[in-house]
């Protein structure tokens, strides 16, 4: 089963980091957040990726084209020019990098990938800027059991500020940035059947607007509730928080 990762947005709210590279290439712990996302999928056996490129897509291409030599021990026979790589920990991933346009919206990027994805029927999709401690095999099994066209992982994000419970002026409970309880939001980490392509109509299609709204009205969208960790990287504050978790050795998404 292929995994689509949307990597084409401009990352305008993270301009400090994205002026010279696309947001999926912003690093956490010395590796692009895109690499962290791919590691999560690969940990559960899903190792074929389709990267939908757009803004500064050449940076992502360069990273993976040079990934093997840059992460390996290298031996060069100067008399012949023969190069041998030695790295027993190199990832056994297949990475398709597809240019889906500079200004194309999320649904349009997915539609451009239809020739690659439709023949196999079922595939996964997520965004190139969010990490999670999700059991992806269980997500896929959930999708298969329910037989809908689309499954979305529903998450409750961490609150931006701490919560206090008061009794008069007395603080009786203080919780630093707890998970919100009020509502569920789209956390990405979708599973789709090929029927999704019937809901996409050109480069201007925003996946999160009419397609998902119509799937919901048609009874073809089901949610997989995830009660664990999830965090997207929209701002420098978000990047710094993820970096802190990684350096502390307490990154929940680490596999």
Can you tell me about this structure?
There is one protein chain. The chain is α/β, with parallel strands linked by helices and 255 residues long. It has a single domain, classed as Spore Coat Polysaccharide Biosynthesis Protein SpsA, Chain A. The chain is built from 9 helices and 16 strands. The protein has helices at 15-18, 33-43, 57-65, 67-71, 106-112, 114-117, 136-146, 210-217, 236-248; strands spanning 3-7, 27-28, 31-32, 48-53, 73-77, 82-86, 94-99, 122-127, 130-132, 150-155, 163-167, 170-175, 185-186, 190-193, 221-226, 230-232. The strands form 5 sheets. Strands 1, 4, 7, 8, 10, 13, 14 and 15 form an 8-stranded mixed sheet that branches. A hairpin with a 4-residue loop joins strand 5 (73-77) and strand 6. It is globular. 34% of the residues are buried. The model has no long low-confidence stretch (mean pLDDT 91).
Keywords:
alpha/beta, Spore Coat Polysaccharide Biosynthesis Protein SpsA, Chain A, 28% helix, 28% strand, globular
Write a compact overview of the structure shown:
With 255 residues, the protein is α/β, with parallel strands linked by helices. It has nine helices and 16 strands.
């Amino acid at each position: 089963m292929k995994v689509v990762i949307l990597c084409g947005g401009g990352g305008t709210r993270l301009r400090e980091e994205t002026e010279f590279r696309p947001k999926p290439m912003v690093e956490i712990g010395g590796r692009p957040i895109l690499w962290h996302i791919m590691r999560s999928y690969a940990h559960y056996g899903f190792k074929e990726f389709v990267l939908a490129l757009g803004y500064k897509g050449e940076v992502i291409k360069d990273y993976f084209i040079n990934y093997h030599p840059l992460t390996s021990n290298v031996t060069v026979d100067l008399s012949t020019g023969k190069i041998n790589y030695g790295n027993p920990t190199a990832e056994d991933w297949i990475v398709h990098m597809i240019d889906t346009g500079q200004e194309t919206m999320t649904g349009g990027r997915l539609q451009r990938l239809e020739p690659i994805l439709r023949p196999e029927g079922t595939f996964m999709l997520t965004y190139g800027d969010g990490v999670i401690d999700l059991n992806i095999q269980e997500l896929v099994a959930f999708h298969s059991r329910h037989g809908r066209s689309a499954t979305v992982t529903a998450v409750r994000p961490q609150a931006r500020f701490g919560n206090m419970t008061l009794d008069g002026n007395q603080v009786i409970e203080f919780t630093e940035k707890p998970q919100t309880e009020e509502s569920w939001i789209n956390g990405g980490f979708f599973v789709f059947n090929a029927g999704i392509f019937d809901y996409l109509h050109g480069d201007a299609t925003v996946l999160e607007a009419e397609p998902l709204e119509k799937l919901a009205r048609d009874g073809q969208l089901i949610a997989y509730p995830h009660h664990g960790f999830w965090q997207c990287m929209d701002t420098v504050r978000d990047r710094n928080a993820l970096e802190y978790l990684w350096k502390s050795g307490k990154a929940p998404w680490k596999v």
